[in-house]
Amino acid sequence: MDPLGNPIAERIAEKLSAYLGPNTSRVAVKTFTIKALGRGPETLKLEDVPQLQAALRPMLRTFVGRAYAEVLLGQIGKELGL
Amino acid sequence: MSSAPSSSGIDDGDMRRLLLLPVVWVALLSVAAILVPKDGLPVLFRVSNESAKVIWLYACVSAALAFQPGDYLRGAWFYFAGACFGVLLRDVTLLFSLGDPVRDDLLRIAILAIANASQVASSWRFGRAWKVAELPDSEKSHLRAYIVVGILVVVVWGGAMFIDVRAALGGDRMALVSIASQLGDFASLCMLAPVLPTALALRGGSLAWPWSMMAACIGGWLAYDVSRAMASVIPMSAALTSTLQESARGAACVFALLSAIAQRRVSSVAHRAASPPHDGPALGTLT
Question: In this predicted complex, what is the ipTM?
Fold first, then answer.
């Protein structure tokens, strides 16, 4: 597995991995970081996290539903101290 | 998939134990088919048939209710439930007559057509989940799945469809029911092709369970159609044919139940985890 090269990105991928599996969670963090910020996950800063959360939202809503997607996104924010 | 309960809460060991359910269903049905006297077999197979469908309906409604109104997969599960309800309703119509065989057949054809439409809508939603989630890198694996399923569909349904079309052209109205059902299965399976790559992509995560069980459910329905096709090609006793068909149907429905159980566990655990114990410092304090 490719390292995401950033502890924040790694932490988010780790959280999502419990649901999406290690491979898809990393792909998701990479894809949606680029989509939301226009740059790679290695550049992710704490202040970028809300934008990444917003980009991850439709994917999570599809797989776990709206209510639980919000719980997960909230947990990610909490774990990152936001 | 790890063996301990994951942080998303699905106990993999528990789910693995539940995998015995379809095996137990098939084993019990096979033993019962051997032990039950010949004149009792139709009752046995009817009970097995309807029980499986009730389990299927329960599974679909249960999984749908794990989601909120408006959630993408809630619709997929409700359409799946609609298909099952339609098939059960058709079975109810076998218990009475409208007094005219033509009207009886037309009623059953209409119900099955609606059930099949619901099945196709469900398959469309399940099959498109990955795309709707906007996840990348799925084109190649999904294309491969479509090709494999396309070949299977032609092999499994080609012969049976030819026989049914010939019968329908010869004036057999019930062959139309079979054609409608097979077209629905055909379309559904093609649309469901991406379910297996989705399950594989999610491996290692708790969502792999509902998706892999759904893939197994599709496999069960495919086995059901294979057993029907086999019966029209290979000479075998009616009892053996029914045992094979009902085993496949039962396994498919139990796998649907396992998919629903897994989906509900993922959802309920995510819900309970709204206030998780927090271990380790927040990343914000590290950077």
Answer: 0.91
Q: Give the residue among B25, B28, B42 at the shortest CA–CA distance from B239.
A: B42
CA distance to A11, B185, B217, per residue, from B159 (Å): 53, 15, 23
Closest residue on chain A to B275 (Cα): A75
Write the single-letter amino acid at B23.
V
Q: Which tokens hold the place of B115?
A: 């059930």
Q: Indicate the DSSP class of residue B6.
A: P
Per-residue pLDDT reduced to its tens digit, B222-244: 888 888 778 777 888 889 999 99
* B237: region left, alpha or beta (phi > 0 left; psi from -120 to 50 alpha): beta
Spatial distance between the Cα atoms of B64 and B67, rounded to a whole number of angstroms: 6
CB contact (8 A) between residue A24 and residue B205: yes
- Residue B204 distance to chain A (closest CA, Å): 4
Nearest residue to B256 via CA among B27, B47, B53:
B53
> Which tokens go with A8?
């924040």
The 3-state DSSP class for residue B54 equals: helix
**Token representation of residue B116:** 């099949």
DSSP string, B182-225: HHHHHHHHHHHTTHHHHHHHTTTSTTHHHHHHHHHHHHHHHHHH
Q: Say yes or no to pLDDT of B57 above 60.
A: yes
